Amino acid sequence: MPTANTALVDRENLREGVDAALARHVASLRETVLAIGPDATPLVDAVERMLAGGKRLRAAFCYWSWRAHGGTPGDEREAAVLRTGAALELFQAAALFHDDVMDDSSTRRGLPTAHRVFADEHRTSQRRGEARRFGDGAAILLGDLALVASDEEMAHALAGLPAPVARAARTVFDLMRTEVTVGQYLDLVAQTMPWGDPADDERRARDVVRTKAARYSVEHPLVLGAALAGADEEALAGCRAVGLPLGEAFQLRDDLLGVLGDPATTGKPTGDDLREGKRTVLVARALALATQAGDTEAAAALARGVGDPGLDADAIAELTALLVRTGAVDEVESLIDELRSETFTQIAARDWPEPARSALVALAHATIDRAA
């Protein structure tokens, strides 16, 4: 994220408070794991590494929404908001551990993914059994461990809050986790489907964007912050109206960066989404535009290439050039612009006070206009 987002996360005890909550949880987890079996401590090390690389985006949306709906820095409810931010970070870690296994990703934030690290350690230690299966199994357990941790942290965050506030926040948190899990499955299903009707391909891609990424990255954290402030249903609906288009723009930008971004900045090899066969709006638009233009060669190359795990750098470059040549990149940029406009129109309709309004506006800009 750009420097603007970093500055917002560093303000008003936000990063410090979230990081402190995460550090406490990791320390407690380490004690528990050591008591169960010292051989399992690499699991705690892996969780700690994953948490260290987070941008705290979701925690920032939650915190500044709480401020926008009447939250006061330093009051008795701030600790609950910061611990909720930590729970969001732990849930994201769980989702990333599982996602990397399902996608067989090689890097995450510029470092080897957990399943690759555990497989390499298995291999170099000359252990029995298949290294890859061990690595995948360890990473699945890591995701489960982080998921349990997110639930524990959320329970601690809500303890002591007024019952209606705790119920409202818990409902949002539970829905978010269910949606991401279902969205991940829809993503898997989409990757198994043959390319067909362009409208259906894009509908399926947009469904995955909303359920797997948009709501959990922006909408639900915004609603959580408002719920923790005791906001009414009208205010929560306002958060949803802002969060969904902003979350969609966030993921569409991610899709563009996945094929056009600088790996040194994004922390992911260029073209991984194409090798994995991600059914993105970008690819759906490219196929639709190639078909409309009668460019059967481009359409066939895209349908054949997307999802081929053996694509080399030259093949990735050729597919990327097709995405640009068909006009799909420009169309996705236009769609991002539409979603940006809707986001800021919705923000303008909210009576959020300063400094929260400016903070959320800046966060929205940083979310859409980013290079990583």
Describe it for me?
- The chain is mainly α and 372 residues long.
- The protein has a single domain, classed as Orthogonal Bundle (Farnesyl Diphosphate Synthase), CATH 1.10.600.10.
- Helix content is 77%, strand content 1%.
- The chain contains 17 helices and 2 strands.
- α2 packs antiparallel against α3 (41-52).
- The mean pLDDT is 91.
- Keywords: Magnesium, Metal-binding, Transferase.
Secondary structure topology:
Elements: H1 3-10, H2 14-36, H3 41-52, H4 57-68, H5 78-103, E1 107-108, E2 111-112, H6 114-124, H7 131-158, H8 163-192, H9 198-228, H10 233-260, H11 263-266, H12 272-276, H13 281-292, H14 296-305, H15 313-325, H16 328-348, H17 356-368
Antiparallel strand pairs: 1-2
Helix pairs in contact: 1-17, 2-3, 2-5, 3-7, 4-5, 4-9, 4-17, 5-7, 5-8, 5-9, 6-7, 8-9, 9-10, 9-13, 10-16, 13-14, 13-16, 16-17
